[in-house]
Amino acid sequence: MSASVLATELKLPLYTIVLDSLITRFMGETAAKLRLVFDHIKQTRAVYLFDEFDAIGTQRGAQNDVGEIRRVLNSFLVFVEQDDSESIIVAATNHPELLDKALYRRFDDIIRFEKPRDNQIQKIIENRLAMFETQSLVWNEVTTAAHGLSAAEITRACEDAAKEAVLHHDKKLATTLVLKAIEQRQAGKE
Fold this sequence. Notes:
This protein is mainly α.
């Protein structure tokens, strides 16, 4: 979501690099595909999101170190270091502890997203559901139900609740509708 907002604010296209389609079992082919991605980065100014980056960014020398992935990571490090384009490269992971330390030196900013607290949860929901009347929501129930969800998951739960309300022509959101959407997101985490 952050890469999407960044692209929107900068009025740039957003490209998401799907790493599972980038990685192949043939030696050298993944690095060649990665070179094509970086050629595109040089040619087309945009925001490029490498999602689930730990797939190629794992620490070299780790117990489960795979030689081909190590070569891909080395190639990525070289490509990033040589990049002089006006594009923005974003790498995202849910497992920062797995990333190779050299990656942290290659990016200008490292942003850690913490799980939102009660007051932040309420602000996210109020902002996302601003088109609806939310004053009657039982906030302590809603915020308690949303504990442990990321801001993105809470946002998606709000979108689900809004869709449900629109389908039933409700301008006012019931607490039960929001709770149901949050509970579905919680169940999806397990």
